[in-house]
C-alpha cells in the first residue's frame, strides 16, 4: 500500500509552470510577486490541500512565526482580551500565538520562558506573576535575540519595551471623581507592592488626596486587598472602624465587588453611605447591584500595541536595545456605585 503523498512547494510550482522560489515568495505575500500570481498560488494551494512544513520553514528562514504570551491567569477577562488583541495583529501577519499562564508563581514563569525558548518562538509578550521580583529569565531571552515586550504588569525597572495604561493618572482621576461626589475619607484597597501597576495606583490615590488637601491616613490603606476574598475581609475591617470612610477606591474590580458585598450585608447603602470605584471594567460591573464605577484599561488596544511592538523588533524595524514605552490613556466608566451626588439630587427632587 503506497503512502499518502504530502504536497510540497515543488508540486505547486510544477502545476503552475514556475519556480519553487516564486511560489514560496507568493505564499509569504512578497511585494515583488504580482497579485495575479499570488492569487493563483493561493487558489492551487487550497485545491491541493497544501500545508507548509513549519520545521523546514524554520530551518530555511530561522523563523517559526510563533509569538509566545505569558500571563498570570488566563481566566481573567482582562488578560483574555489582551490576548485577543495580540492574536488579531499576529494572525494578520502570519504568526500563531502560544499562550501559557504562570498562575502568579515565579518558578512557573521561569520554566515557561525556558520551554518557549526551546520551541523557537520569535517574540515574547509578558505580564508578570505577582511573585516575580527577579527578571534574569527574561534577560536570558533578550540576550538570545528574542524580542520581549511587557504589558500591564511590567518590571519595576525597565529592561525592555512596555505597554501599559497610565495607572497613576487613572487612579488620580478615580479618586478625584470620589472627591467630586462629596467623599472626604477615602479608603484604598491596594494590591501587592511588588508589582508596578499597584504601586502606581497607590501613588495616584495619594497624590489626588494631597492635591485636595485631604489627609492620607494609614488606617484607610488596606494592603494586599485585590481578590474577592480579601475584598470581603477589607469590608469587615471597614465595618469595625469607628470613623468609617465615605468612599473606597479599589485597585481591582474583584476586591471592589467583595467589599461591596460585605458592606451591604453589614447594613450600609452604596453609594449613599460609601461610594465605591474599582479598576478593570470587568464585564460583570454593569450587572452587580449597584453597577460598579470602574477604570477601563483599553484591553484589546493594549494587546494590539504589544503585537505591533513585537513585529517591529522581529522584522528588525526597531533595534533590540530600543526600550519603547506606550502609555495608554484610561477611561473612567461612571456607574451608580459612586454617584453619591446624583442620589442626593434625586432625594431633593422627591421632597419637592
Automatic annotation (TrEMBL):
Q: Which domain of life is it from?
A: Bacteria
What SMART domains does its record include? HTH_LACI
Keyword entries, A-Z: DNA-binding, Transcription, Transcription regulation
Has keyword Transcription? yes
An example of a GO molecular function for this protein is: transcription cis-regulatory region binding
What region holds the HTH lacI-type domain? 7-61
The record, for PROSITE patterns, names: HTH_LACI_2
Cited Gene3D superfamilies:
3.40.50.2300, lambda repressor-like DNA-binding domains
Instruction: Establish whether keyword Transcription regulation is in the entry.
Output: yes
| Entry-linked InterPro entries | HTH_LacI, LacI/GalR-like_sensor, Lambda_DNA-bd_dom_sf, Peripla_BP_I
Please name the PANTHER family in this protein's record: HTH-TYPE TRANSCRIPTIONAL REGULATOR GALS, LACI-RELATED TRANSCRIPTIONAL REPRESSOR
Q: What is this protein called?
A: LacI family transcriptional regulator
Name the species this protein comes from: Coprobacter secundus subsp. similis
The record lists the lineage as: Bacteria, Pseudomonadati, Bacteroidota, Bacteroidia, Bacteroidales
Amino acid at each position: 500500500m503506497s503512502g499518502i503523498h504530502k504536497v510540497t512547494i515543488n508540486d505547486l510550482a510544477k502545476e503552475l509552470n514556475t519556480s519553487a522560489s516564486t511560489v514560496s515568495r507568493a505564499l509569504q505575500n512578497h511585494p515583488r510577486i504580482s497579485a495575479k500570481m499570488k492569487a493563483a498560488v493561493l487558489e492551487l494551494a487550497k485545491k491541493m490541500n497544501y500545508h507548509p512544513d513549519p520545521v523546514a520553514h524554520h530551518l530555511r528562514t530561522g523563523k517559526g512565526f510563533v509569538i509566545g504570551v505569558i500571563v498570570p491567569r488566563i481566566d481573567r477577562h482582562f488578560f483574555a482580551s489582551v490576548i485577543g488583541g495580540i492574536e488579531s495583529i499576529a494572525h494578520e501577519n502570519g504568526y500563531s500565538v502560544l499562550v501559557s499562564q504562570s498562575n502568579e508563581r515565579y518558578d512557573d514563569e521561569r520554566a515557561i520562558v525556558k520551554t518557549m525558548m526551546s520551541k523557537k518562538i520569535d517574540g515574547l509578550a509578558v505580564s508578570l506573576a505577582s511573585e516575580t521580583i527577579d527578571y534574569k529569565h527574561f534577560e536570558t531571552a533578550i540576550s538570545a535575540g528574542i524580542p520581549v515586550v511587557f504589558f500591564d504588569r511590567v518590571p519595576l525597572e525597565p529592561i525592555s519595551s512596555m505597554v501599559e495604561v497610565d495607572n497613576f493618572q487613572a487612579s488620580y482621576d478615580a479618586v478625584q471623581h470620589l472627591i467630586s461626589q462629596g467623599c472626604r475619607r477615602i479608603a484604598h484597597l491596594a494590591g501587592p507592592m511588588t508589582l508596578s501597576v499597584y504601586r502606581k495606583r497607590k501613588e495616584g490615590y495619594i497624590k489626588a488626596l494631597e492635591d485636595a488637601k485631604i489627609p492620607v491616613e494609614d488606617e484607610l490603606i488596606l494592603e494586599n486587598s485585590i481578590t474577592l476574598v480579601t475584598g470581603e475581609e477589607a469590608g469587615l475591617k471597614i465595618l469595625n472602624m469607628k470613623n468609617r470612610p465615605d468612599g473606597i477606591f479599589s485597585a481591582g474590580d474583584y476586591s471592589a465587588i467583595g467589599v461591596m458585598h460585605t458592606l451591604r450585608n453589614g447594613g450600609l447603602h452604596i453609594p449613599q453611605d460609601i461610594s465605591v470605584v474599582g479598576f478593570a471594567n470587568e464585564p460583570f460591573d454593569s450587572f452587580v447591584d449597584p453597577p460598579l464605577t470602574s477604570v477601563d484599561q483599553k484591553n484589546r488596544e493594549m494587546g494590539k500595541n504589544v503585537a505591533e511592538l513585537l513585529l517591529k523588533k522581529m522584522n528588525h524595524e526597531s533595534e533590540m536595545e530600543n526600550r519603547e514605552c506606550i502609555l495608554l490613556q484610561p477611561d473612567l466608566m461612571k456607574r451608580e456605585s459612586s454617584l453619591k451626588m446624583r442620589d442626593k439630587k434625586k432625594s431633593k427632587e422627591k421632597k419637592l
